[in-house]
């Protein structure tokens, strides 16, 4: 959505010093925009540190992994529930600050729509079915109804 609206990625290009994707950079950018993740997510990350997968995966360098936490470069959280590489977190930049092309009610509705998807825990995210009923789509439904009424 940010690519279309703002001509930029919401979390930028999360690359490390080697210009390759870096999950720690990505996580820090997410924390910058969304705030810190809930403890429940941190507990899940800790549990996945030990979880093995049956079919190995290989990274771009050809290294073999049977643990996705290691594949992505984990662990990601310290013992005191902070992210590693916390120095990458950009303070003072919330989700609202990332939207410059909208204002007023239009911006509020867009941000509410986005926040319903941008939840740390998957079970907290709105379903696609529920998102289709969000006020973000009201004008589309009004246009559709107006067009359909004109054809009757």
From TrEMBL:
SUPFAM superfamilies: Protein kinase-like (PK-like) (SSF56112)
Organism from which the protein derives: Phialemonium thermophilum
Gene3D superfamilies cross-referenced by the UniProt entry: Transferase(Phosphotransferase) domain 1 (1.10.510.10)
Protein name per its UniProtKB record: Protein kinase domain-containing protein
Keyword Lyase: no
Keywords from the UniProt entry: ATP-binding, Kinase, Nucleotide-binding, Serine/threonine-protein kinase, Transferase
Signal peptide: none
């Amino acid at each position: 959505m940010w690519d279309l609206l703002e001509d930029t990625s919401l979390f930028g290009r999360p690359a490390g010093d080697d210009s390759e994707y870096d999950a720690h950079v990505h996580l820090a950018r997410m924390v910058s925009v969304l705030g810190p993740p809930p403890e429940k997510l941190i507990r899940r990350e800790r549990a996945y540190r030990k979880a093995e997968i049956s079919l190995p995966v290989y990274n771009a360098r050809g290294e073999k992994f049977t643990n996705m936490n290691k594949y992505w470069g984990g662990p990601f959280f310290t013992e005191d529930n902070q992210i590693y590489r916390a120095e990458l977190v950009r303070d003072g930049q919330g989700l609202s600050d990332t939207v410059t092309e909208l204002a007023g009610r239009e911006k509020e509705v867009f941000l509410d729509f986005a926040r319903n998807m941008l939840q740390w825990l998957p079970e907290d995210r709105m379903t696609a079915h529920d998102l289709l009923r969000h006020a973000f789509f009201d004008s589309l439904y009004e246009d559709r109804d107006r067009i359909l009424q004109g054809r009757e």
